[in-house]
Design brief:
Blueprint: E1 9-13, H1 17-23, H2 28-49, E2 53-60, H3 68-91, E3 94-99, H4 107-120, E4 126-134, H5 136-150, H6 155-159, H7 163-167, E5 180-183, E6 202-205, H8 215-226
Parallel strand pairs: 1-2, 1-5, 2-4, 3-4, 5-6
Helix pairs in contact: 1-2, 2-3, 3-4
The structure holds farnesyl diphosphate (FPP).
Farnesyl diphosphate (FPP) binds at residues 14-19, 28, 32, 35-36, 39, 56, 58, 63, 74, 77-78, 81, 130, 185.
């Protein structure tokens, strides 16, 4: 069935990998490994549906506090996926972008990200954004500092600054705000994700754990979105 009213920007808080693995008596990393398959499936489904931006919350600033072995495994998976998926991204016309506190990532991972971003920079069918070492409060604070620097010595300019000026300093500058935010695994919270950018985002919560969230589930979320009535605080 054709999906109507396709959101321009779909974002996903991919949650439940650990529980999925536990249910199978396996280590948490096994869940992350299967979660990568869901990343691939949802990327394909998003391209097929005509979504322009798909963003995924892969690793938060808070996730650095997980056991070192899990952090290492997640960073390793990221590196492996970057190396493996170049062809698929090129074939599907997908531009790859990583947003977050890049200073905390290893030199090797940063170099691999730079190279994939460069290689896919000319692709126009869809933009795949991976949020890595990202948190909403971190983004807002770095934007505030940046705005302050820009207007240093110009208090009148600072007083006249608009929301658009502020948005230009967020790491998501130039990217439309998410229309639809999906969170898997039954948790219903924002977890310090795109706090500013989600002001008018539609939320979709599902009990499905991330490794089980594949094309059919993604399409189900798009259909639910199509039935939403977005008013942006106005009266129709
Ligand atoms: C949440 O499950 C998932 C994560 C913190 C990591 C998401 C990462 C991937 C799917 C793999 C790499 C990603 C890419 C883009 C290649 P959880 O560990 O919080 O699960 P739990 O809540 O059940 O413990």
């Amino acid at each position: 069935m054709e999906i109507t009213n396709v959101p321009r920007h779909v974002s996903i808080i991919m949650d439940g990998n650990g529980r999925w693995a536990k249910e199978r008596g396996k280590e948490r990393v096994y869940g992350h490994l299967n979660g990568v398959e869901s990343v691939r499936a949802c990327t394909e489904a998003a391209v097929e549906a005509g979504v322009e931006y798909l963003s995924l919350f892969a690793f938060s600033e808070e996730n650095w506090n997980r056991p070192g072995s899990e952090v290492d495994a997640l960073m390793g998976l990221m590196m492996q996926s970057i190396r493996k998926e170049v062809g698929t991204l090129m074939d599907n016309g997908v531009r790859f972008v990583v947003l977050g506190n890049r200073a905390r990532l290893s030199e090797g991972l940063n170099a691999a990200i730079d190279s994939l971003e460069k290689e896919t920079a000319g692709n126009v069918r869809m933009t795949l954004i991976i949020f890595l070492s990202y948190s909403g409060k971190w983004d807002i604070l770095q934007a505030a500092k940046s705005l302050a620097r820009r207007f240093a010595g110009d208090p009148e300019g600072l007083d006249a600054a608009t929301p658009a000026d502020f948005e230009n300093e967020l790491v998501t500058a130039g990217i439309p705000d998410p229309d639809l935010l999906i969170r898997t695994s039954g948790e219903q919270r924002i977890s310090n994700y795109m706090l500013w950018q989600s002001a008018y985002t539609e939320f979709y919560f599902t009990d499905v754990l991330w490794p089980d969230f594949r094309k059919r589930e993604f399409r189900k979320a798009l259909k639910a979105y199509a039935a939403r009535d977005r008013r942006y605080g106005k009266v129709k």
